[in-house]
Amino acid sequence: MDTIIEKIQETHPDEEVVSRAGSILRAGGLVAIPTETVYGLAADALDEEAATRIYAAKGRPSDNPLIVHITKMEDLEVIAAEIPDIARQLAEKFWPGPLTMIFRKTDRVPYGTTGGLDTVAVRMPSNKISRAVIESGGGFLAAPSANTSGRPSPTTAAHVIEDLNGKIEMIVDGGATGIGLESTIVDVTAPVPVILRPGYVTKAMIEEVTQEVVMDSVTDGNDKDERPKAPGMKYKHYAPRAEIILVDGQMEEVIRKINQFVENAQAEGKRAGIIATQESRDSYPHEWVRCIGTRADEETIAHNLFQVLRSFDQDQVDVIYSEVFFQEGIGHAIMNRLCKAAGNHVIHV
Ligand code: TXA
Ligand code: MG
Questions:
Q1: Residue 216: CB partners within 8 Å, gap ≥ 6?
Q2: pLDDT (tens digit, 9 = 90+) per residue, 265-308?
Q3: Which of 162, 265, 313, 318 is deepest in the core (most CB within 10 A)?
């Protein structure tokens, strides 16, 4: 199929483009839209057939549930069977924004949207384009990240085009997304809320609302045998085509070792890439060095991570060596994505 691609400004979303996107969605079609986190691949969440088409376009396993995006609290009542007080408090503080909460679902939400689960993930995004399209599309849009399953999430329309051009009806190009990592997911169905996926909203930020919140041990990589509670977390994710190896240790030693690994790889005829920071980039005298941002502001690293991972595909590198980051604040989410992309391959030096 021919995919319609339309540019749009977040400051003044073009009404004609928004209403075209809305008509496609109401007719059961697929539209990729920017959000403040990453681009999402949207379909009408209450139309089982439409939601199911998302899986085919992404090549996503059908037991991996979708997040339903809404724009107002009244709409939460339509899809969530129970809204605990803690969820209202978290919504008050973080919605609209990069937080997803898991609720028990009502009958209005088809199992095709929830991957067969009795719970539903809900998020209220703040990006004006996504909000306009959600409203125009009927108010309830299922939207996973708009990448081919397993690849890094898209943070620009060009990434969406790479993965989904010809497979979906429309791509709304609203420029690069701000945050660059997916939302924090919190399960509020349990007595104590559980973070299933770290994101821009950190554990410390959630603790300002509720003293009690725990990090799912499986998500965090501490419990390898158990099945993650966010089904999507069990799949290989965020990966560029090349193998990624994380190198952890004292900065000087990390730089020395990465340089050595790259020289060894080159000696074997391999093309090796490096993920460096503004602070370290000049210490790597090699060709495929990418600066991911500055350690002085880790939000820059979050913003660039997926873009940098994808850029190595164009360079056709065989292996990528990366520095690691502190597991604090947004660094926790950055390391969660990097570790998954690397299949947890970390060398301690
Ligand atoms: O920032 C985001 O959350 C982006 C934008 C587009 O909103 N969306 C996104 O969706 O990252 P996706 O599908 O790539 O990731 C959704 C994650 C998956 O790991 C999935 O398993 C989990 O949420 N999830 C969805 N519904 C769930 C449920 N009912 N229970 C547990 N986990 C759920
Ligand atoms: Mg995803």
A1: 187, 194, 195, 196, 228, 229, 230
A2: 999 999 999 999 999 999 999 999 999 999 999 999 999 999 99
A3: 265
